[in-house]
Design goal:
Blueprint (H helix, E strand, L loop, with lengths): L14 H48 L4 H7 L1 H20 L1 H24 L9 H26 L3 H6 L3
Helix pairs in contact: 1-3, 1-4, 1-5, 4-5
Amino acid sequence: MSGEEGHTISPTETIEQYMENRWRDQLNWFESRAALNQRRFMMTRRLMLISSLLTPIAIFITILIPAHYRDLYSLIPLILSTAAVGSYQWEEQHNYGAQWAKFRLIAERLKHERELFTQRARHYARLDAEAARRLFVDLVEGQIEGTDVSYFTLMVDPEPRMRGER
């Protein structure tokens, strides 16, 4: 959705049409991506927290288990610690927290720009309707287009980390 080429507003398209056809569509996309990444981030963090907390308890309980069941029970701390490390690494690789923040920030910027435009505040204050419309579209499209570049600066290329480079 946000990867589309920049939208150009035609002279016949009203600002209301632009807001409904482009601005709202983009806002909804960024908000849905923020919500998705928030859920994923929280899920991986909860899994990590719970399994990290339960691992030492499970290890302690191992000494209380009768010897003939100890080998079987020892799999529980192994599974818990693997879940803790695995969920942490999964989130690190997919950057759910960073993506959540990024998409939320862009959604808020789009809403902020709409509010400035609607209230004719700041850089819209002294502009006529047509100039304000063009500026609004230009700034909104700049936000949308800028997210593609920001995404690649935000998301660290995994190759240098695998080779031990920085």
